[in-house]
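Much of our argument rests on the idea that a fold can be written as discrete symbols. This step matters because it turns folding into a mapping between discrete strings. The record that follows shows the chain in one-letter code together with its fold in token form.
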Amino acid sequence: MDNDQWKSLAVSLALGVAGGSLFQLTGMPLAWMLGPLVANLLGAMAGLTLAVPERLRSLFLGVLGLTLGARVSPELVSHLASWWLSGTLLLLGVLASTLACAAWYRRCGFDATSAWFASVPGVLTAMMIIGERSGGDAQRIAVAQSLRVLLVILILPPLYWLLEGGGGADGAGDPPVSGLWLVLTLPLLLPLGRRLRLPNAALLGPLLVAMALSLAEVVRFAPPIWGTDVMQLVLGCAIGARFKGLSPARLAGLMGQSGVATLIALAVLGGFAEVIHQAMGVPRDVAFLALAPGGIGEMALLAVALDLDPVFVAFHHLLRMIVLMLALPLMVRHFRRRAPVPDGEACDERKGD
């Protein structure tokens, strides 16, 4: 990195430390992700030059993958076969929420292709790239997808915190620190995952390795609490810095559209989560988090922070991600065959300018 990139990173991390320190005072879960995220979002809107290099973000996603993979045990694997129903309901919920959100975005002036790729809850980067190649509006898709993840992250932790009476996982049952040497393998695992074309390779590659080592009882990765805080800090800064260049007025207009779409997705998927709770006896909060339309890394982190069966949550988000990646070629063929459709008028995003 050159001097300007180092400076941008330093400013982003400094804002993150300040935001994380303030949020930690509230006792809220994911304080070291939410605080840096909000601080960087405000800094970006204020015109500060912020950036978290993709390599650094990928490295800490790899640490998260190691953390999640280490939580897989032989006892848990024996339960995978019983999750077929929740997996099926998840996929039906994804389809239903995508259709509902796409209908909303069509009313907001999106063309059909952009509305669909902006509404699919998952694999954000792939949806932005493939959506553009399929004839969609890259900027609209990117902003809608990014704001969905942002809003879910901002809504769910405070919501769970309030519903639990301001409490969270106290960490009393945390395992002792172990397997820290696995971090040294990440420079090998990350490019290997990309060469194998794994979806979300930075997360999934280390996750699979840590899972295999845990199941074989070779080693179980367990970072210290401060290490988990640093991981959240970097990932939170990376999300917030993504919104550089957006004016407050512009962001407010886009936030209104995406806010409605996010609430629609949460309501639809929440209904399917309730079915999982009633049919399978899965705790309601765990089922809802497993179906929530956020990123796999962020939702898994929230599950860890609240001690809400992070492996069940991560499994369902991973299933969603893999199925969506497999479905992408079908989406591309479908939308490339469609003729352009005139935009709607109900809530033109220019109203936020």
Residues 82-222+245-341 form one domain. The mean pLDDT is 82.
